[in-house]
Amino acid sequence: MTPTSTDSGLIVHARLATIGGQGYGLLEDAAIAWQDGQIRWLGPEDQMPDACRHLRARALDANGALVTPGLIDAHTHLVFAGNRAEEFEQRLEGTSYEAIAQSGGGIMGTVRATRAADEEDLLAAALPRARALAADGVTTLEIKSGYALSLDGEAKILRVARRIGKLIGIDVRTTLLALHALPPEYQGRRSEYVDDVCTRWLPSLHAQGLVDGVDAFCEGIGFSVQEVRRLFVAAKQLGLPVKLHADQLSNLHGAALAAEFNALSADHLECTDDAGIAAMAAAGTTAMLLPGSYYTLRETRLPPVAALRDAKVRMAVATDFNPGTSPLLSLRLAMNMACTLFKLTPQEALLAVTSHAAHALGLQDRGQLAPGMRADLVLWRAHTPAELSYWIGGVQPEATFCGGVRLS
Ligand code: DI6
Ligand code: FE
Fold first, then answer.
1. pLDDT per residue over 357-371, tens digit each?
2. Helix 151-168, helix 107-116: angle, nearest 10
């Protein structure tokens, strides 16, 4: 690899929050070098090995500023058409989220708009959203389907998700969320819908290379534990990891179900009980906290953060970006909300969008700064790691690298 390669580089005079070892894993007066998209060395600048010195010619001088791993937004519904601003108004006038869904709005409103959009329209709508997340330091982005609810439509969404990653240069992980709402064609035939998703849609989309994981909306207005169980059995047979929208609006014991299938994550958890937490702890399932939807729905039940912490369940945080309950395009704002609303410490919040979020996607090659890890890193216009949770807006990356290649 030559010094001019686009996926090699060096940052000097940095404060590295490595997220390895204890807490932030801070290294002062440090340098970090990468080659072929992988971190090769990091440490005190005066100990830099000769093998890294050829990168000096085009080193970035951080002037003492903070470098973190690239942020990971591990729960989004980024690809859809239209928006739901009208429902936002209705909710503020007193109509509940569930009542809107039951009267044919909610998710189904977005489904109608998304079905009517072609692939290029969907891409054009989604790209600026992904760019907004990337501008805030996101280098790995999970995107769920779930707003077309037909085999071809879900494929269209997942293809758009993959294209976004290539166009912006970030790493996109796709999740099939067909059990999001019952499509109108299947009214009165719920069981047949679940069967079709399990036996036809999932194998077909998997064979097309469009599915990295499987999710479901386990809720009174979504799908039951029994229905989700069938989906998870089918996913496991294909070797696909699962995760679950669990216990957000009601306690259907979704967290325990997720744990039973060794889910990567159980997400939301506002209504999760002690048995659910114990099951997650035993299974190593990550708790995915989503303060954006808590805030937007003006929810008052808090996820059981103290109990999750006591049980040593890993906590991740994501935007849950979606048009209904979380129109939030800043993972940093989600970190701030996780601290202010859920009482995470800023240190927990940074872990939640780096190493714990990587865990929630089943990815071992990122989320920390260490030799051998992907060179996904952000140089911030900030000095202390707590600033990333503290400032509400304003702090932006000075430079972002994904797989060693500079994004901004
Ligand atoms: N994620 C979801 O899938 C639902 N809520 C959530 O947090 C529904 C999103 C929507 O209303 O479109
Ligand atoms: Fe969601």
1. 999 999 999 999 999
2. 80
